[in-house]
Write a structure and sequence with these properties.
Blueprint: E1 13-18, E2 32-36, E3 52-53, E4 64-69, E5 75-80, H1 82-93, H2 98-101, H3 114-119, E6 121-127, H4 134-144, H5 169-174, E7 181-187, E8 190-196, H6 204-211, E9 216-222, H7 229-240, E10 245-250, H8 259-270, E11 274-276, E12 278-281, E13 289-292, E14 297-301, H9 303-307, E15 321-325, H10 331-335, H11 337-353, H12 359-363, E16 368-372, H13 381-391, E17 398-399, E18 405-406, E19 414-422, E20 431-439, E21 441-443, E22 447-450, E23 456-458, E24 463-466, E25 469-472, E26 475-477, E27 481-485, E28 495-497, E29 514-520, H14 526-536, E30 543-547, E31 556-559, H15 562-576, E32 580-584, E33 589-593, H16 596-603, E34 610-614, E35 619-623, H17 626-635, E36 642-643
Parallel strand pairs: 6-8, 6-9, 9-10, 10-16, 11-16
Antiparallel strand pairs: 1-2, 3-4, 4-5, 7-8, 12-13, 13-14, 14-15, 17-18, 19-20, 19-28, 20-27, 21-26, 22-23, 22-28, 24-25, 24-27, 29-31, 29-32, 30-31, 30-34, 33-35, 33-36, 34-35
Helix pairs in contact: 14-15
Length: 652
């Protein structure tokens, strides 16, 4: 009797009929198939459709999802090619006794193991001061991971590829990262979720939210400048989140500080011990490569060979690279006697400082592995990536409000929204919520509960994120970052869960320092203006407040830096066709009234401050300076506690 292929779980079926596209076949190659039916005891399985076509993969080859019924009447979902689907259909229609002909297999045979999937996830954020080469390093990591065929440039020449992570037009024009970006790709049996963050101080709040979704942090340092102000601020954010920190000293192909000086800066300013995993051989024009301590190998870099055209079949990622033992006799002739003598002296010094890397100390955030290389010239990047996979931590557990804790291998799905983004695809005016999966397994079509609104939400259009591009996602696991269609159901910090109620701590917002009314210059575009305010400002690009005076309907923008205002105006024009003007307000400090409107009423008339409301309707006091804040606290105790942070109201 004919049977389906061993790697395909067939559908149990009845009532043979002819359907042209039940399993995704095109009308041109219709196949006779029985109508598939799903029988299952599990309530969730009853909601599964009878058969459906999966979305096209990036390669263009179509695959199909078959809903299988095993011997215990449990439903599993497997992928099948068009040919395999046709074989299953033929087997089902060619015999009378369907149950005997179509054999079933245990669900475990097709279900991916949660523990193994979690172990293979690595989620990390890259932080740095502007112009340290963060976006360039991101492109090289994607290139080595096979996610892109050509690494883009931050400032691309005409006709050249621009950076994958910098997809906004304003990012391409200015050569800076304005919005954080999620990029997921596979590398050596690992699934990497890379979170690229803005380096500019004006976007610190977006960076803070993104770092909260990471399990590891890569701190990028310009080797010529050492530690810079924004690097220091972002390091503290990572330390507050308890992240292991990996350091990459970039731009070694340019004149750079001494490696020992860079290590000393990290140790003295951050009080964080360092361990040099590799060591540079020269710098600037004399940069020859790096010495990799774990394997006692020297990786030599030939810039001329790297820039040359690759031969057919040649691996671009290793082009221009030569690897040999540090004890190889020809090493001295390759790098020169002076650099060879310096290298031997440095190796002796490094061995005296410590020979083994304490992995547990790295995971606890008490030690940072340090790497050297050049992102622009692709040198040292793959070596860093390979080492990072071995040293970094898998997805970690999270504390819940109330004292409980959720672990990544817990069966129940839990996730939280850390970013909202409007108009990633301008043609469709889409709104996407970025969700970090904290525990369990995510499946397309699952129904979850939003802890803040207490409402059930059907996750019918999930996506895997890759910069501006999205691919339909059928399944995800703890550590993954998924994109959800956001018709207004989500806010930053929302907890999504299945099963028993779970609430993760909310993500606080930064205290803004600049305030201005956003005015519509063209009254004929009132609807476009209101739509832009609702969608664009709703994603948290800046904080939005409103006057208590019903006559004043224009939003008050509240930002950490001036560049945030410029981004809002540029996007309002580019994405909604609305020209806007800003009317600055003379305030520099915002404080949220913890006691709410009752505290405002109890305080009576308030001097030297303006009372407005945030998007949640909570009272906010705007002051000209900190002295006014101290004065109202001292003179008006009825006002109660004033907070520099806004926290969205959580479900009780």
């Amino acid at each position: 009797e004919p049977a389906p292929p061993s790697n395909v779980v067939a559908l149990r079926a009845h009532r043979p009929i002819t359907m042209t596209s039940l399993l995704g076949a095109s009308p041109a190659r219709a196949i006779p198939t029985p109508r598939a039916s799903v029988r299952a005891s599990a309530p969730s399985a009853a909601r599964l459709p009878r058969a459906e076509t999966a979305s096209r993969r990036p390669s263009g080859r179509q695959s199909f999802r078959l809903h299988a019924v095993d011997a215990d009447d449990e439903v599993a979902v497997v992928e099948a090619s068009p040919e395999e689907a046709a074989e299953v259909a033929e087997a089902m229609s060619s015999v009378d006794d369907i149950p005997d002909a179509i054999k079933t297999v245990p669900k475990a045979a097709v279900e991916r193991d949660l523990g193994k999937e979690v172990e293979s996830r690595r989620t990390f954020a890259i932080i740095s001061h502007p112009d340290a080469g963060k976006t360039t390093l991101t492109e090289k990591l994607l290139y080595y991971g096979g996610a892109i065929q050509e690494a883009g440039a931050v400032r691309a020449r005409r006709g050249a590829k621009s950076a994958t992570s910098d997809w906004m037009e304003m990012e391409k024009q200015r050569g800076i990262s304005i919005s954080s970006t999620a990029l997921s790709f596979a590398y050596k049996n690992f699934t990497l979720n890379l979170l690229d963050t803005p380096g500019h101080a004006d976007f610190s709040e977006d960076t803070y939210r993104t770092v909260s979704a990471a399990d590891n942090a890569v701190m990028l340092i310009d080797s010529a400048k050492g530690l810079e102000p924004q690097t220091r601020k972002l390091f503290e954010v990572c330390r507050l989140n308890g992240l292991p920190i990996f350091t990459f000293c970039n731009k070694m192909d340019r004149p750079a500080l001494e490696p020992l000086e860079l290590l000393d800066q990290i140790e003295s300013e951050f009080n964080l011990p360092t361990y040099a995993v590799n060591w540079p051989i020269g710098s600037g024009d004399t940069f020859k490569g790096v010495y990799h301590r774990p394997r006692r190998e020297v990786h030599l870099f030939n810039a001329e060979a790297k820039d040359g055209k690759a031969k057919k079949g040649e691996d671009k990622s290793t082009k221009g690279l030569e690897v040999l033992s540090v004890d190889d006799e020809k090493l001295e002739s390759l790098i020169g006697a002076e650099l060879h003598a310096q290298l031997m002296e440095d190796i002796e010094l490094l061995d005296e400082l410590g020979g083994e890397l304490d992995i547990q100390a790295v995971h606890d955030g008490e030690l940072t592995p340090v790497f050297f290389g050049s992102g622009m010239n692709n040198f040292g990047v793959q070596l860093f990536l390979d080492s990072f996979l071995g040293y970094s931590v898998r997805p970690r557990g999270r504390d819940l409000l109330g004292g409980d804790r959720v672990e990544p291998t817990d069966e129940g799905f839990t996730g939280f929204v850390f970013k909202l983004q409007a108009n990633m695809d301008p043609r469709h005016r889409d709104k996407v919520a970025f969700v970090r999966v904290v525990s369990g397994r995510f499946e397309r079509g699952m129904r979850v509960t939003n802890a803040r609104t207490k409402k059930a939400v059907l996750l019918s259009r999930p996506s895997q994120m890759f910069g501006q591009d999205k691919t339909v996602l059928d399944e995800g696991f703890a550590g993954d970052v998924i994109g959800l269609n956001n018709p207004g159901s989500f806010a930053i910090g929302d907890t999504l869960y299945m099963g028993s109620r779970k609430v993760l701590p909310p993500i606080p917002t930064f205290s803004p320092e600049l305030f201005a009314y956003l005015r519509n210059s063209d009254t004929g575009k009132y609807k476009q203006f209101q739509k832009g305010v609702q969608e664009l400002l709703g994603e948290g690009a800046v904080q939005v407040m409103y006057s208590r005076d019903a006559v004043k309907q224009d939003p008050i923008l509240a930002a950490v830096g001036q560049l945030q205002f410029e981004v809002v105006q540029a996007r309002m024009l580019a994405e909604y066709g609305v020209e806007t003007t800003l009317e600055p307000l003379p305030f520099a400090v915002a404080r949220w009234v913890v006691g709410g409107w009752d505290a405002i009423d109890a305080a009576g008339r308030i001097f030297n401050a303006q009372c407005v409301k945030d998007i949640w309707g909570q009272p906010v006091l705007l002051f000209k300076n900190q002295w006014n804040v101290d004065q109202i606290v001292a003179d008006t105790p009825e006002i109660g506690e004033l907070s520099p942070f806004s926290i969205p109201p959580a479900a009780e």
